[in-house]
Amino acid sequence: MNKEELLKAYKDTFGEEGKDVFFSPGRINVIGEHTDYNGGHVFPAAISLGVYGVYGPREDNKIRLYSGNVDGDIVEFDLDDSSVEKDDRFWTNYFKGMLTYLKQREDGNKINHGFNLYIKATLPSGSGLSSSAAIEMLMGIILKDEFDLDVDRPTLARLGQRTENEFVGLNSGIMDQFACIMGKKDSAIFLDCNTMEYEYKPLKLGDYEIIIMSTNKAHTLADSAYNDRVAECGDALKKLQTKLDIKALGELDEDTFDEYSYLINDETELKRARHAVSENQRTIRATKAMEANDLEKLGRLIDASHVSLHYDYEVTGKELDTLAESSWKQPGVLGARMIGGGFGGSAIAIVRKDKAEEFKKNVGKAYRDAIGYDASFYDAEIVDGTKRI
Fold first, then answer.
1. Burial, 373: exposed, middle or buried (Cβ in 10 Å; 0-12, 13-18, 19+)?
2. Is the residue at 386 inside a domain?
3. 295 with 206: CB under 8 angstroms?
4. Longest dimension (CA), the chain
5. From edge to edge, which strands make up the β-sheet containing 41-42?
6. Distance between CA 354 and CA 197 in Å, rounded?
7. What is the mean pLDDT of the chain?
8. 177 in the same domain as 326
9. Phi and psi at residue 117, to the nearest 5°
10. How far is Cα 360 from Cα 327, in angstroms, rounded to an integer?
11. Residue ranges of the Galactokinase N-terminal domain (predicted)?
């Protein structure tokens, strides 16, 4: 969407001119799934699919939100209303949480008047590409810019995670918000979620490109087994901590985990922890492989990530498995795996550019034959993080 279209949509909705236009990207994660809340490494990148917002100030204390993607009326609430919304207004909680926590900060009294906000997403709904984090970071940057708040981007990412954890009730890690707000064009972020140390690494794929594959099976992580996985890993960690001085599973290498795995003595918890440890090590090896331009090794590690998410973490399901396994059979494919929380959502494949159209056709047919409806395919551009445009 271009700026003029968005400003027109704002005027049609609110009957006045909008002031500023913002964009917040979704994210993909090359490798490192379900490692963020386990204190491991991730390797995400911000993408050109995302959420736009048009802001206009008000003289009263009313917040008025309208989504161009949701059939419904303007949602209105007071500036000081921090109640959690239910049912068809649930999407507004990602805005309300950020507003609530930014107002609690030392300079939060600067947020002293209401505003109108028109929202339009280009992210497919329920795609597992982090639309909620994109919304949270959109709200964070709008409030930072429009009310001149003294808050840096990593802090906004943490407030977004707090919104998910405390306001919405999903025990997620920091990766999604960090990727959305800290993204850098043509680069992925190698982030240690234990220490928050990070570095940008160019996504140099040569003759290959990343293709996003959406299952078109919507998922709501807050209603899924996501929180169960967090709890299972937490229980495994507590058992390991009886003998090991660690704060997170991400601190362990595979040899140490193997040596002390007898402490867990529970089949489910053992599998969950094994994924967290092995996926973290795969992520470290994958970034080194990419730096060494060993794209074939990168691809194998991406495939191995999906296998671990299927067998040890059990978050894939028929739709994601069909996409990944069909991708592996296609010519010109380096690797493919599910991304995001799982239980639906999306997968990625790294595909030779000259094989991309054939790939989409073949995987699309295999998916339709197996699942009964179509998957959607998107070419991913890697972009900068949340910003005013």
1. exposed
2. no
3. yes
4. 66
5. 41-42, 187-192, 198-202
6. 37
7. 94
8. no
9. -140, 120
10. 9
11. 9-56
DSSP letter, residue 166 = I
Q: Any known ligand binding at 82?
A: no
Q: What is the pLDDT of residue 279?
A: 98
Could you tell me if 229 and 197 lie in one domain? no
pLDDT tops 70 at residue 219: no
For the beta carbon of residue 28, count every other beta carbon within 10 angstroms: 26
Q: Tens digit of pLDDT for each residue in 331-361?
A: 999 999 999 888 889 999 999 999 999 999 9
Q: Answer yes or no: is 214 a known binding residue.
A: no
For residue 128, the model assigns a pLDDT of: 74
How many CA atoms are closer than 13 Å to the CA of 15, on its beta-carbon side?
Answer: 3
| Average pLDDT for 180-184 | 97
Q: What are the residue numbers of the active site?
A: 176
* pLDDT (0 to 100) of residue 37: 94
C-alpha span between 341 and 218 (Å, rounded): 12
Residues 225 and 315 in one domain: yes
10 labelled ligand-binding: no
* Domain of 280, in residue numbers: 205-379
Cβ neighbours around 179 below 10 Å, total: 30
Of 51-65, 86-100, 240-254, minimum mean pLDDT range = 86-100
Whole-structure pTM value = 0.91
Work out the angle at residue 210's Cα, subtended by the Cα atoms of residues 206 and 216, and round it to the nearest 5 degrees.
Answer: 170
Looking up residue 248, the CATH number of its domain turns out to be 3.30.70.890
Tokens representing residue 351 in the block: 């595909």
Q: Sheet holding 376-379: strands in order across?
A: 333-339, 346-352, 208-214, 376-379
| Residue 132, marked binder | yes
To 10 degrees, what angle do helices 93-103 and 153-162 make? 120
Domain boundary residue, one of 138, 168, 201: 201
The answer on whether 386 is annotated among ligand-binding residues is no
